Amino acid sequence: MLQQEGDERIHRVKADVARRLRYVRQHHPEGPFTLAGLAERAGVSKRTLSQAESADGCNLTLETLLKVSHSLGISRDGYFLDEQVFEQVNAELTALAAPDTLDAPGGPSKASPVAAPVDRLSGLIGEILASAAQAQSALRDLPAPPHGLPGRDDERR
């Protein structure tokens, strides 16, 4: 029973890695890449990438996954293994690609090297503020401290 569950989990992870690899190869701002092009860029074999993208996937090494992600400028090591990291990095890549396509007056363009970092910083600040709001909401739900200790009302004075 445990062996079967383990095998099923491995199959799901391989399928997820294959899906993420296909996605980044086709949607990366510098792409789309052919299997051969990405393999050359990452310093891995085309056959390895082809097998990794197949329905059954293959047993990729962490070294191969890291070579591929780093060759695409992705520094988050969990990109191929963690859905949340995958989605966050793809959003960042999309945001970084956006200034190249916007040439509106006063808007970001290739001529403005500051635009992309400012947009990234703005996005990060937005994420920080959203996280702070979630934390504040969670703290409100905590029980009041025992009598004699400063409570939330004391801190607001």
Walk me through this protein's architecture.
With 157 residues, this protein is mainly α. Helices cover 65% and strands 0% of the residues. The radius of gyration is 22 Å and the shape is flat. The relative contact order is 0.08. The model is unreliable at 100-114 (pLDDT under 50).
Summarize the structure.
The protein has 157 residues and is mostly helical. 65% of the residues lie in helices and 0% in strands.
Looking at this protein, list some descriptive labels.
157 residues; mainly alpha; flat
Shape: flat
* Radius of gyration of CA atoms, rounded to a whole number: 22 Å
Structural class: mainly alpha
What composes the largest sheet?
A: none
Number of strands: 0
Distance linking N and C termini: 59 Å
What is the percent of helical residues? Answer: 55-70%
Measured by DSSP, the beta-strand proportion falls in under 5%
Count every helix, treating DSSP H or I runs of 4 or more residues as helices: 7
Chain-averaged pLDDT = 77
Q: What is the chain-wise order of helices and strands?
A: HHHHHHH
Low-confidence stretches are 100-114
